[in-house]
Amino acid sequence: MSMEYRKIFRCFLVCCAILFGAMLWCLPENAAAPSVVAGSGVAQDPWASAAGKVVVLIFVRTDCPIANRYAPEIMRLSAKHASDAAFWMVYPDKRESSEEIRKHEVVYHLALPVLRDPQRELMKRAQVSVTPEAAVFDAKGRLVYHGRIDNWFEDFGRARPAPTTHELADAIAAAASGHPATLPSVAAVGCYLSDLQ
Amino acid sequence: MICWRMMRHVKMPRVMIFSMRKQKYVGAIAAVLAVLSVIAASHAEPYRAQHAFAAAQNAAAAASGTARQVTAREGTDREVTFNRDIAPIVFHICANCHRPGEAGPFSLLTYDDVKAHARQIVSVTSRRFMPPWLPDRGDFAFADELRLSDEQIALFRTWYEAGTPQGAAKDLPALPKFTEGWQMGKPDVILRATKPFTLPSGGTDQYWNFVFRAPVAETRWVRAVEIRPGNKRLVHHANLLVDRSDSARHEEAQPGDGFAGMELQIESENFDPDGHFLFWKPGTLPRPEPNSMALRLDAGDDLVLNTHLQPSGKPEQIQPSVGLYFTPQPATEFPVLLQLECDKQLDIPAGEKHFVVSDEFTLPVDVELLAIYPHAHYLGKDLLALARLPSGEEKTLIHIAHWDLNWQAVYRYAQPVKLASGTTIVMRYIYDNSQDNSANPNDPPKRVVAGNRASDEMAHLWLQVLPTNEAGANPAGAAERVGVADPRIKLEEALARHHIENNADDFEAHYNLGAMLQMRGETRDAAAQFAEAQRLRPGDATVENALGGALLAMGQLSAAIEHLSAAVKARPDYFDVHYNLGLALARHEDFSAAVEEFRAAVRLSPKDANAEANLGSALAAAGALAEAKTHLERALTLNPQNTLARENLDQILQDAPH
Fold first, then answer.
1. Domains and CATH numbers, chain B
2. Which of the ends of chain B has fewer CB neighbours closer than 10 A, N or C?
């Protein structure tokens, strides 16, 4: 993608070996500048590696119960859309150590590449405000949807037995087929990113 | 929760004595009906119970006092800080659940913890989702209310909007000292589920039952129970039931496996109404009931833990434990759980937003209301219980304007609520079967009727009451209280008749009324009720046995044999049935068949002196004197006072050729 984005993703890394759902990490924890960290030792830009696919960022934190309960659904969706969408987990909470994040990925069986966003650059670009929240970028890198994954949670403590609308899946399908974004953002229920440092 | 509609299974025929006349053994059988006296004796051993209550936060009250004080003292303009204003609320109320090992999904123990969820805390407190507490303020206060005051809720918002200031270090109160592990010290007995249950990472909520087999070897009085549900983050609530008749074991594929199911039905033998809620919800501390209400646990009784589990996003193992605390003092006061219900009225059309059911029951005796437990499933919206006093005045017992099955709980009154005989308990529940109800299990909505599955509905109201008049005149003589004049029987009988009036097809009500009539010696009326129950569930081992037993007591032998044989067929490992069928066959003078039934009974319960005595007697009647002697002697070893065995043995020895 464009140079601009590359700038954002300047350092970083995470080598993730996915082995039975477990990931190994080497992640520079407090690198001074880095805002977004990802990949496997090389500076990596989700859009650069997307190869024309839709890019999906899922914002989570390790201590957010609603985000945690979405883990199986996140994995199901990423597998289902593997051919047209590249999924990334984004952990924006600076307080979370790489060890905590690694453990989180293992116990919740989140076998997806991970990004960190200490400078909030991805957050701003994705215009998200809670966890769990999804952002979908089309093949041109344009933000086409951000908001809830589906309508499972109506409010804190008010969950449907199963969701009846599927905003993220619909947005991925629309973006993958090159349709212009038609979905408005639908607010997600979860932990507010504004509560983070 | 649990359908604790218990069947009071009067083991009446078991108390019939199979005796021989002192002539020849052939056909000399007379069944002596000692039903009444023996039943009375069997529950002369007074029942009851214990507690288990959630508790927590007496400090809640203290903290709420603090908040109000602060506002009053300093007005609204001063800065609200974490250390001075927020920490007291969080430490005393939230931290009970929001600390490691407890039910809350994250800790709220430090400034950083709270700040990292500040805006979310404003949301969840202003919607009153946290702390979890469903009932509105009513006419009677509950113990351990977990309700924030409006001032406290406003403090969270003001603090958040001011940018979450931390404040002066000197203002920070100390964290309360939390007791880790068993809250009342090491229990006298610790039970641990044999096998963990594996909860999948996702999907809908699950309901799982763990059976703790025969935890005590002799009768013990339990003054408190602590339920440790395993991983508290997954268990929304748990109900512990005493199973005196091995009902739950039969649901397990292998001993220790546990079994699925949201509602449980447990039979109980004798008139031994359940008097105690053994309930766990997040934040629950065990609360002993007064020793006067200790719970009786007999050898062989099982405990069954019914749990409501919510997937967390990762696969989990749940292996609960239960701690029992004993007291040497037998109970002298016997509360009863009364159940009102409107299940028959539940036929909720798809899309209906405001479906109302109601029931009214007038108390036939004075009671003290100790606790209340409303129960509906996912369509429940507004649950109300009132007491209409004899004066006509109405008092709200509980009102939950936003029912949420996930946070269902037993609520204990801060002070017992005195309700005079003639007071009418009114329940009125409203259901929402429209799409607006996000918890609706059906999408699109469809017609829903009563049932045990999560997708069915229920309309139950449980009251824990302590009868206070009548036999209460003799509080020390507990044994006398549990006779036929026991106010508990009056209550239960009135309730069973009330249920039958509402629903002629109420199986348990017919069965229970039959059992109570049987206990009073009204065998013919009892048989009629059992026959109604049998009509509703032909082939059910328990009811076939009861009906067979009543018919046997009335001397209707062939009908008795027919029903008892049906019971044996339904449940071949049912001791009572073999025993009773043995009696019926013996009275019918079919001794060889009787011998086979008594053999089966002895196999199932080798320590039962009566079964051995009857086996010996039937053998003697069949002419097998040598073997008869062995069994009669064994009966006397088991119980030297067994007169049947003594008499028949004497007879054999006397008649034996020297």
1. 2-21+504-655 (1.25.40.10), 52-171 (no CATH), 184-327 (2.60.120), 337-479 (2.60.120.230)
2. C
